[in-house]
Design goal:
The chain has 2 domains: 93 residues, no CATH class; 180 residues, Vaccinia Virus protein VP39 (Rossmann fold), CATH 3.40.50. It has 11 helices and 12 strands. A 7-stranded mixed sheet has the order 7-6-5-8-9-12-11, with helices on both faces. Strands 1, 2, 3, 4 and 10 form a 5-stranded antiparallel sheet that branches. Bound molecules: zinc ion (ZN). Zinc ion binds next to loops. The site of zinc ion (ZN) has 8 residues, from loops.
Length: 340
């Protein structure tokens, strides 16, 4: 366990609105079936337990593989529970803003960021495929820059909104998607961390790429806990995520599935080219020490920040109390701050 606060006490670690609370209660009341999982990188079964809950206060069994340093769920929903979760619960619990809000966010932020990251390696007017495109805002941005775009997703409501704005989107999973076309690039943005069988998906993508084509992958890395989650793993852990990457563990997963890195950053935006079958790497490197060091560093900083914050609160309270303003501030705070 990273620390005692990661034990499952059923309490959420983030502020939730009423709809999220209701959706979490509804999910908890359902029949949830679990399966033990082996490491998707080295197939090991020995995990050091990191956490027993996620940010919503739901059971969440995160482990660190002792053989390779990969972080993943060592016990996770079975296929039936996963299908039910994605169909009925995922977006409501996550607090998603709906198809239009997602479209705008993808069009204005994600699409430009991905295009900028890939631009040196893109052929003008090439065919782009996005797997897990949501409402298609990223592809809208690519289409605006002259690319021939196709997107697949499973959420009909999001797809219908996207189609109404122009991009060619269709309801399909990567398992059942077929196409006479080959693509360059294939985009997998905030998808890989959800997959319980990434090897299958990475192999299928190889068959969809043109020769010399590449795969863009973006995942919320362990390193991003520093920048996007206030140094707090309990804000980062959410039950839709099965995998939690560092630069090294993503690199090892990709190498073992026959891809070589073109470029990669810490947050993690990355670009990969397929290698030929005889270049596939079977050796396992153990990144346990570097993963542990990163976790400890983040957790240590989180604790220092909390200590400083509590100290600052105590000082402020003393000052307000001595100046006779404490009661007034408390009254204002009660009016302004929504209860959890
Ligand atoms: Zn492993």
């Amino acid at each position: 366990m990273i620390a005692r606060r990661y034990e499952n006490d059923g309490e959420p670690s983030i502020r939730l609105d009423a709809r999220q609370k209701q959706s979490i209660a509804a999910f908890k009341s359902k029949r949830i079936s679990w399966r033990r999982r082996s490491c998707v990188i080295c197939e090991g079964v020995d995990f050091e337990v990191l956490s027993g809950k996620n940010r919503y206060g739901l059971e969440y069994y995160t482990g660190l593989c002792l053989c390779c340093g990969n972080i993943q769920q060592y016990k996770y929903y079975d296929q039936e529970t996963l299908c039910q979760f994605y169909a009925d619960d995922y977006r409501k619990i996550y607090g998603a803003g709906g198809p239009e809000a997602l479209f705008e966010q993808l069009r204005n932020q994600k699409g430009p960021a991905i295009l900028a990251f890939c631009s040196n390696d893109l052929m003008p007017h090439s065919k782009v495929l996005e797997i897990g495109c949501g409402s298609g805002g990223t592809l809208f941005h690519f289409a605006k820059h002259g690319f021939d775009v196709t997107g697949i997703d499973l959420d009909r409501q999001y797809l219908e909104f996207g189609v109404s704005r122009g991009p060619r989107l269709q309801e399909a999973s990567i398992e059942n998607f077929t196409s006479a076309c080959r693509y360059d690039p294939v985009i997998l943005s905030h998808v890989l961390e959800h997959l319980t069988d990434p090897g299958f998906v990475l192999a299928k993508i190889k068959s969809l790429l043109v020769e010399d084509g590449f795969l863009y992958i973006e995942v919320p890395s362990i390193h991003s806990v520093r920048t996007s989650y206030e140094w707090n793993f309990l804000e980062y852990f959410q039950n839709a995520h099965f995998l939690h990457f560092t630069r090294e563990t993503l690199g090892q997963l990709m190498r073992r599935n026959g891809y070589v890195a073109i470029r990669q950053n810490d947050f993690i935006q990355s670009l990969w080219a397929p290698t030929s079958a005889d270049e596939k790497i079977d050796e396992i490197e153990n990144f346990y020490e570097s993963t542990v060091s990163e976790i400890n560093d983040i957790e240590k900083t989180y604790r220092s920040r909390i200590r400083y914050l509590n100290f600052a609160k105590r000082v402020l309270r003393t000052v307000l109390s001595k100046t006779g303003l404490l009661a007034a501030v408390r009254r204002i705070k009660r009016r302004l701050i929504m209860p959890r």
